[in-house]
Amino acid sequence: MAYRAWFQCINPECGETYPLNSIVYQCKRCNSLLEVQHDLKALSRRNARSWKTLFEKRYKSNEWPVGSGVWGKKEWILPQIADGNIVSLYEGGTNLFWAERFGKVIGLNELWVKLCGNTHSGSFKDLGMTVLVSQVKQMISEGAPIKAVVCASTGDTSAALATYCAAAGIQSIVLLPRGKVSIAQLVQPISNGALVLYLDTDFDGCMKLVQEITRDETLYLANSMNSLRVEGQKTVGIEIVQQFDWEAPDVIVIPGGNLGNVSALGKGLMMMKDLGLITKLPRIVVAQAERANPLYRSYLTNFETFKPIQAQKTLASAIQIGNPVSIEKAIRTLKQFNGIVEQATEEELADAAALGDRTGMFNCPHTGVAMAALIKLLKAGKIDKAERVVVISTAHGLKFVEMKVQYHQRKLGFPSRHANQPIELPAQLDAVKAALRKALAARKQFNV
Ligand SMILES: *Cc1c(COP(=O)(O)O)cnc(C)c1O
Ligand SMILES: [Zn+2]
Fold first, then answer.
1. pLDDT tens for each residue of 143-196
2. Residues 306, 293: contact at Cβ < 8 Å?
3. How many CB atoms lie within 10 A of CB 14?
């Protein structure tokens, strides 16, 4: 069966198309972003029941490459790629954690957390990067003169790019804002042999430079304005529905910075609806840090205006972005999904992440932003306690230990309500016993 996909301009008045193996990131006619379009007619020749059966059969199986959560949906992602060019590190298939205790603590009957950080490079960026690097490998095999793949990053895109490129034997180049990524995020591309450019600017500054240098077609652009990444990332919504035995939840909360991921989430869900796999769409909530909140500000005007801002330093460093590339796609998604945007202060995001940790998670600060937004929306009555809610956890907390250590040391400039500090004492039995007696009496053990 011949399934086909191509790039198409998102501007409805333009709609120009380009083949997937052309080196193009924005429409040459009107400069809008592109998106990958699929031949839905061909895909709909297979009925919904049969797609579900196929996806289930492949899911987390040992069959390469379709055991990958992304490549198990290959026909919906990149139907024309040769299996031999697929660069997969078995991404996707992450746990949908039943956050039973955390849900109870915040007053929600049913809360689930999609742990996208439990993956090869520690963030959801793997889902998109497997698709982009595979397509690059295919283009190189067809004779495209690509010398390296380049991205600007707040730390996780660069880690994913570097590891997939290293696995494929392709040179990667990453531009990072100096001092604005964690040590783990800096050492990831260094270890994977990327050319690491560490620049005295912020993410938006790196992004500008990357757009300039990739005018040279031998340097291929890997940022999410390249819509190939969105194709892989869109599997997160499909996978969540699959994990609920093909039932869509009521609400999905996702942290947003450059806004590629919320667009991807919406795209996957919409494709399921178009092909009859679901009938109901969930509401989508985008959570932003108050210090980097251009989408939230636009939401307050009903999306009538949008102004880029200078993002301020935030603990949620991966979403410290003031001029999101995918703003138009994100607003379109929020309108389709009856969307809400909420914001979280530094204290709110850090406390929410720590409170979640007390119930068995190990949250990154961006997941903290999403949890804080959820708590606020519950309090405001905008989300009902009877709704089934999924929070998308975007990265593994182990990438952000500096922030977590400082939280527990109460060094973040606010009280750190859930701080837990080690007790320092001599290695003597009496001292240990006395300390335990005192600490256990003071503490409501097993309560958060
Ligand atoms: C990239 C990233 C985000 C934001 O995703 P966007 O597509 O830029 O909105 C959120 N959290 C983490 C951990 C990330 O790495
Ligand atoms: Zn166009």
1. 999 999 999 999 999 999 999 999 999 999 999 999 999 999 999 999 999 999
2. no
3. 14
In the chain, what are the domain boundaries?
96-122+230-408
Query: What separation in Å is there between the alpha carbon of 440 and the centre of ligand 1?
Result: 39
Residue nearest to atom 1 of ligand 1 (CA): 318
Distance of alpha carbon 234 from alpha carbon 224, whole angstroms: 12
pTM here is: 0.97
pLDDT tens-digit profile of 31-85?
999 999 999 999 999 999 999 999 999 999 999 999 999 999 999 999 999 999 9
CA atoms within a 13 Å half-sphere pointing along the CA-CB vector of 80: 15
Please report the atom of ligand 1 found closest to the CA of residue 366.
11
Ligand 1: nearest atom to the Cα of 257: 9
**Looking at ligand 1, which atom is closest to the CA of residue 399?**
13
Per-residue pLDDT reduced to its tens digit, 213-234 = 999 999 999 998 899 999 999 9
* Best mutation site among 124, 126, 252, 284 for ligand 1 pocket (most ligand atoms within 8 Å of CB): 124
Name the E strands within 178-291: 195-199, 219-221, 251-255, 283-289
What are the residues facing 152 on neighbouring strands?
Answer: 175
CA of 26 to the centre of ligand 2 (A): 8
Tokens 């795209």 identify what position?
267
CA contacts within 13 A on the Cβ side of 13: 4
Which two three-digit tokens encode residue 209?
A: 């430079």
**Alpha carbon nearest to ligand 1 atom 15, residue:** 156
CATH of span 96-122+230-408 = 3.40.50.1100
* Residues in contact with ligand 1 (CB, 6 Å cut-off): 123, 125, 156, 224, 255-261, 318-319, 364, 366, 394-395
Rg, the chain, Cα only? 22
pLDDT digits over 147-157, tens only?
999 999 999 99
